[in-house]
């Protein structure tokens, strides 16, 4: 079938569905699948663009029309089209999912020109942790959260539902972890400098040095590659990214779900690593520790309630608190131990050991919040959250 014929057939299929309606209206199964596979394509394009983007910015001077930006923009255009379809027809989403998608897409679209203005005013601004960049992540956060809710609430039970829910959570994990790639690329760039090599092109180094008012030396390189406090990487990794794995395990409701979500993201990072480095782009440290963190989350879910019943004779709120405390302690020891080994063997951002206090407190608070949230969901969601094979 040639392209014009395909477009004509697709238009004739879609035309009867193009009617205005409220969010939550009954959606034909084939249309529901088309919408969410469309989201899968949109998020894949954004993922490929963002994976290339960080490496690009550690090599070349920033360019608004750089190939990674264009690839990411293609995914954004498709996401915007899907947002319009959901909003106009009401198909494929309930009211909450629609609002999350609309607000997320809106925040992202507002953040794009703000980021361009920020670069015009502040120059290089390479850090992933700048306010305009964080706004991009926040928009994507709510967008994917809406997609997850829409699929979770509307997809029929079965293997396809579970697999796509895991895939959407892997995209969600990538977005949450994304700013930490600055340190993951930065630490290896510092190592290259110490070995009398550089990954960045001379034009980028000169621009960064002029902006900092320094010669091209190690102090400048450190400010360029590791511009944030050392405590940020481990604390954020433990509190934010592990929280995603906890919620993924609750919503997918299958043993091993957190491990598979983490392995999917880390596997992608490991796959693109040689693709980037063999084409001349800078390498990054790969967060393999997230796979073990996911495994610890799955183990905690497997033993938390049976253990609580054995010790307390109950699986209620008090048991959930004890279970969360035990899981938090196990995860803290595992993640910080892995980061320490990772730093020595394969390269990892500097680990501020004292930050474990803040990471532990944050993880416990987030885990308890997740327990509270899961108990307030409709009974169908609670059943899915606690189901095991």
TrEMBL record:
Task: Tell whether Ribosomal protein is among the UniProt keywords.
Answer: no
Keywords, sorted A to Z:
Membrane, Transmembrane, Transmembrane helix
Regions that span the bilayer: 36-58, 70-88, 100-118, 134-152, 231-248, 255-276, 288-307, 319-339, 351-370
Keyword Transmembrane helix attributed: yes
The molecule here is called: DUF2029 domain-containing protein
Q: Which organism is it from?
A: Nonomuraea indica
């Amino acid at each position: 079938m040639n392209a014009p014929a395909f477009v004509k057939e697709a238009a004739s299929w879609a035309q009867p569905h193009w009617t205005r309606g409220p969010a939550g209206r009954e959606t034909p199964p084939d249309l529901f699948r088309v919408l969410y596979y469309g989201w899968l394509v949109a998020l894949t394009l954004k993922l490929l663009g963002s994976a290339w983007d960080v490496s690009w910015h550690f090599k070349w001077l920033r360019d608004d029309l750089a190939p990674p930006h264009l690839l990411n923009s293609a995914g954004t255009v498709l996401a915007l089209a899907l947002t319009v379809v959901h909003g106009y027809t009401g198909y494929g989403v309930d009211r909450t999912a629609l609002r999350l998608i609309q607000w997320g897409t809106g925040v992202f679209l507002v953040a794009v020109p703000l980021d361009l203005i920020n670069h015009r005013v502040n120059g290089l601004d390479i850090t992933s942790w700048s306010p305009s960049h964080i706004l991009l992540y926040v928009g994507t956060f709510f967008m994917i959260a809406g997609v997850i809710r829409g699929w979770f609430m509307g997809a029929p039970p079965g293997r396809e539902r579970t697999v796509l829910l895991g895939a959407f959570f892997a995209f969600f994990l990538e977005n949450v972890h994304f700013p930490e790639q600055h340190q993951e690329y930065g630490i290896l760039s510092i190592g290259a400098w110490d070995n009398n090599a550089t990954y960045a092109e001379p034009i980028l180094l000169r621009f960064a040095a002029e902006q900092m008012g320094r010669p091209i030396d190690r102090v400048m390189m450190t400010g360029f590659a590791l511009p944030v406090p050392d405590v940020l990487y481990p604390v954020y990794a433990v509190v934010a990214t592990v929280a995603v794995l906890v919620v993924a395990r609750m919503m997918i409701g299958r043993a091993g779900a957190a491990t598979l979500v983490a392995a999917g993201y880390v596997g992608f990072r490991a796959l693109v690593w040689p693709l980037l480095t063999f084409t001349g782009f800078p390498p990054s440290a790969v967060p393999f520790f997230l796979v073990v963190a996911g495994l610890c989350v799955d183990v905690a879910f497997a033993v938390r309630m049976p253990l609580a019943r054995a010790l307390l004779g109950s699986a209620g709120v008090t048991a959930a608190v004890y279970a969360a405390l035990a899981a938090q302690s196990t995860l803290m020891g595992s993640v910080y131990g892995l980061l320490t080994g990772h730093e020595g063997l394969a390269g990892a951002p500097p680990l501020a050991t004292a930050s474990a206090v803040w990471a532990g407190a944050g993880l416990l608070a987030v885990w308890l919040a997740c327990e509270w949230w899961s108990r307030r969901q409709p009974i169908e969601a609670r059943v899915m959250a606690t189901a095991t094979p």
